[in-house]
Amino acid sequence: MMTNIYFYILVAAFVSTLIRVLPVTVFRKPISNRFVKSFLYYVPYVTLAVMTFPAIVDATQNKLAGILALLCGMVAAWLNQSLFRVASICCIVVFIAELILV
Amino acid sequence: MNNFYNNSKKQAFREGFIDGFPIGLGYFAVAFSLGILARKANFDPLQGFINSLLNHASAGEYAVYTVASAAAGFLEMAIMTLVVNARYLLMSTALSQKFDEKTSMIHRILVGFTVTDELFAITIKRPGFINPMYNYGAFLIAAVCWSMGTSCGIVAGELMPASIVSALSVALYGMFLACIMPEARKHRIVAVLIGVSFILSYVANRMEFFKNISAGTKTIILTVVIASVAAILFPHPEVEDDD
Questions:
Q1: Pick from A74, A94, A95: CB nearest B177
Q2: Domain that holds residue B238
Q3: Residue B36 falls within a domain, yes or no?
Q4: What is the interface pTM, i.e. ipTM, of the complex?
Q5: In a domain, B44, yes or no
Q6: Which of B81, B125, B176 sits opposite A51 (nearest CB)?
Q7: Each residue of A54-84: pLDDT tens digit?
Q8: Dist. CA B151–CA B61, nearest whole Å
Q9: Final residue of a domain: which of B118, B143, B169?
Q10: Is residue B175, in this structure, part of any structural domain at all?
């Protein structure tokens, strides 16, 4: 069982490293195709948005606290606050909201 | 191009370390809860640490704990990892376009290795070419916190109060917002896409019909569909314009 666990870890590590490393090493030239360029431009924003909601609402003990964190975080980020500030604001909002709600 | 590119290596490493710090805090909390799961799968603190350091992906590690505790085959382990981590293929491809063509292979490999949702987010937020030193600085602090968090979760179990875990768990999402909203403010189409993504993601997560599809797979399908439609309808005219 002991050694087995390390094998599982190594198999997973091998596959995830391959996934991460292959594209950056294979695509070494700028892609000129307009569709692909636009697609790749949109990918980060879409994928991060998809991962944020509704996950943020499910992460907290109380759903309303998650919704408040989302709204406050969106406003703070819209106002170009730093990464650290936006993250802290979300945490503090949840902490205070749950003091009242939970 | 812009002054970021002229920064010294040390400065870029420092900036990465600073931006990586809040990520590390969030990671610690998430990894802690992951450690509680690892403990149930009979992983010791060292195994948890190594798994976190090498895989650094919550869904990917969760897959390791599930597959290992079920004593399933290694092929299943490999396929599970591929499915839950496939979004990194997209992220890595997006990053490939932000490299200076002169960047050496070893830096490309190392930067590729550091890709996580959050580090990807802060990398695309930086204008200009990728400076590998920035990614190393951010990865160093983030990965150490992540791995320590896993070990602490395995050792300390459920000692941390639920209110703190709950509050810290939204830090990662706050960082995602900080990465996408400034671009939404500059380009209305990005703002619209974020709204559409929220709605479709909500639908995909709540509808019975999609219940058996893993979260990672949903992320990939939604990303490919939404970004493709957007690329067809609204080809971005000045992709290279990074301020």
A1: A74
A2: 187-243
A3: yes
A4: 0.87
A5: yes
A6: B176
A7: 989 988 899 999 999 999 999 999 999 877 7
A8: 13
A9: B169
A10: no
